[in-house]
């Protein structure tokens, strides 16, 4: 109810605050990435919740479902929340707009409460496990991911990953979920410490200043923007991120010092020059990181996880093969899309548009090929350590199917790379991968019992799709307006 004083209507503070909270909520719920993420995690969480309600209710064999109901949302959604919150609070309007902070901080605290407390409390009675253990699990995964994403440091994220992967071991399931009543005091301490750290993050968000090291939002550099100011911000974020790592800084300086040794106007030299604009460091450096990740995941999953102990090594190999195809395939289009703001200047160079686009495509595809080779070497090491016997024909079939499907994914990624919306690009690329990867899964399930004619037909079809998509993407980029 409005109050009146000297014929002037005065709205109570709480009513104004409620309206501001409503507007802040609208800011969050109108994000397309939010709905895409909810749909994706819904496809993962709902089936696992249904499984936990069945014969596996309150049983040890139903505990692994909590890794997908609680663990995966904490690992993926919390970093996204940090980027979204920084886009609101790490901005000049947070200081210039009156009463800006209270409503935003209340909504942010409510979202954290839903993630870290309400979700595990909702899942506990459905799965039949102790609520305190699930809340402690959510805190142990979500809070380190929260601070690691905020500070742009990998060490806290390692803590989250270690806790998540512990759920794939027998002792981890027992400690966190099955026998959580035996660890009530430790779990309560984890929850209390998590609440303190989450509250301190909200406090930190309310006091962000531009001169602070954690002010910048690293997720802005993932979006292909068309305005010059946002393109400059992307470059500054990348530069600051590289400057913080002495190793990356040294590698980047050494790599860029070789620029003076490139001469000639041939296509190969042009490709080598334009490769520098795709990343701050060589693709081989990123490849080493992904190789280390694949080796660690592969050795852990095949040697120590409950999946391997229960005979689920085929599913593990499927996951690693899929990872080795998806990442190199998407890399080509996404790196080119992020480079788009700079092409408006590069097109002024003494080159024809055909030469520039052809060289950019060659550089992007070259990076994907290098990454594919490195990750498949790591995959071979993992399979060898797992002791899986493979004949030469089996390995050849895998490589042919993998290479052709990756080429098709590269084509799909390049075809949608001119789209300004990264959400649409991800949806189309993921859909293409789900359509193109079943031949690899069929190879795994059938134990490579695919005759030569069928194999050749599938490889030829995937290769033709990839070449057609790349040619179509090239035509789209040639007709694109760069502003």
Report a brief summary of the structure.
This protein is mainly α. The protein has helices at residues 13-29, 32-53, 65-89, 93-96, 100-127, 131-151, 154-166, 170-178, 184-205, 228-243, 246-256, 267-274, 283-303, 306-309, 313-346, 353-386, 392-416, 422-436, 438-445, 452-478; strands spanning 3-5, 8-10.
SSE blueprint and pairings:
Layout: E1 3-5, E2 8-10, H1 13-29, H2 32-53, H3 65-89, H4 93-96, H5 100-127, H6 131-151, H7 154-166, H8 170-178, H9 184-205, H10 228-243, H11 246-256, H12 267-274, H13 283-303, H14 306-309, H15 313-346, H16 353-386, H17 392-416, H18 422-436, H19 438-445, H20 452-478
Antiparallel strand pairs: 1-2
Helix pairs in contact: 1-5, 2-3, 3-5, 3-6, 3-7, 5-6, 5-9, 6-7, 6-9, 12-16, 13-15, 13-16, 15-16, 15-17, 15-19, 16-17, 17-18, 17-20
Write a structural description.
This protein is mostly helical and 483 residues long. It has two domains: 10-215, no CATH class; 258-478, no CATH class. The protein has helices spanning 13-29, 32-53, 65-89, 93-96, 100-127, 131-151, 154-166, 170-178, 184-205, 228-243, 246-256, 267-274, 283-303, 306-309, 313-346, 353-386, 392-416, 422-436, 438-445, 452-478, and strands spanning 3-5, 8-10. A two-stranded antiparallel ribbon has the order 1-2. The longest helix has 34 residues, at 313-346. Mean pLDDT is 81; it is low at 1-10 and 224-229.
């Amino acid at each position: 109810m409005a109050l009146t004083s000297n014929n002037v209507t005065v709205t109570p503070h709480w009513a104004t605050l409620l309206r501001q909270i409503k507007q802040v909520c609208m800011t969050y719920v109108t994000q397309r990435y939010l709905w895409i993420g909810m749909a994706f995690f819904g496809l993962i969480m709902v089936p696992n919740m249904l499984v936990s309600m069945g014969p596996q209710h309150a049983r040890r064999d139903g505990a692994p479902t909590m890794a997908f109901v609680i663990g995966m949302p904490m690992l993926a959604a919390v970093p996204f929340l940090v980027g979204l919150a920084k886009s609101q609070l790490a901005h000049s309007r947070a200081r210039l707009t009156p009463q800006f902070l209270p409503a935003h901080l209340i909504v942010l605290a409510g979202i954290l409460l839903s993630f870290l407390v309400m979700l595990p409390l909702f899942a506990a009675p459905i799965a039949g496990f102790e609520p305190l253990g699930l809340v402690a699990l959510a805190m142990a995964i979500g809070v380190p991911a929260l601070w690691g994403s905020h500070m742009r440091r990998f060490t806290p994220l390692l803590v989250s990953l270690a806790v998540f992967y512990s759920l794939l071991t027998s002792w981890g399931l027992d400690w966190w979920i099955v026998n959580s009543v035996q660890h009530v005091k430790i779990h309560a301490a984890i929850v209390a410490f998590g609440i303190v750290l989450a509250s301190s993050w909200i406090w930190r968000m309310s006091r962000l200043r531009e001169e602070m090291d954690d002010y910048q939002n690293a997720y802005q550099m993932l979006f292909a923007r068309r305005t010059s100011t946002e393109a400059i911000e992307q470059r500054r974020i990348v530069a600051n991120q590289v400057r913080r790592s002495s190793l990356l800084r040294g590698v980047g300086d050494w790599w860029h010092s070789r620029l003076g040794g490139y001469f000639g106007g041939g296509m190969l030299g042009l490709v080598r020059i334009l490769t520098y604009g795709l990343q701050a460091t060589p693709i081989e450096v990123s490849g080493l990181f992904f190789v280390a990740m694949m080796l660690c995941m592969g050795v852990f999953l095949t040697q120590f996880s409950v999946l391997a102990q229960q005979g689920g090594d085929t599913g593990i190999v499927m996951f690693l093969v899929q990872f080795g195809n998806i990442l190199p395939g998407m890399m080509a289009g996404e790196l080119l899309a992020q480079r788009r703001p700079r092409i408006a200047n590069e097109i002024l160079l003494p080159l024809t548009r055909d030469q520039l686009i052809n060289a950019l495509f060659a550089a992007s595809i070259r990076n994907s090929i290098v990454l594919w080779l490195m990750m498949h070497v790591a995959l071979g090491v993992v399979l060898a350590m797992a002791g899986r016997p493979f004949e030469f024909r089996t390995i050849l079939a895998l490589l042919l199917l993998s290479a052709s499907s990756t080429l098709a994914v590269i084509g799909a990624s390049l075809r949608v790379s001119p789209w300004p919306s990264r959400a649409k690009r991800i949806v189309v690329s993921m859909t293409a991968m789900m359509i193109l990867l079943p031949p690899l899964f069929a190879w795994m399930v059938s134990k490579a019992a695919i005759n030569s004619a069928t194999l050749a037909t599938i490889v030829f079809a995937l290769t033709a799709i990839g070449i057609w998509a790349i040619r179509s993407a090239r035509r789209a980029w040639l007709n694109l307006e760069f502003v």
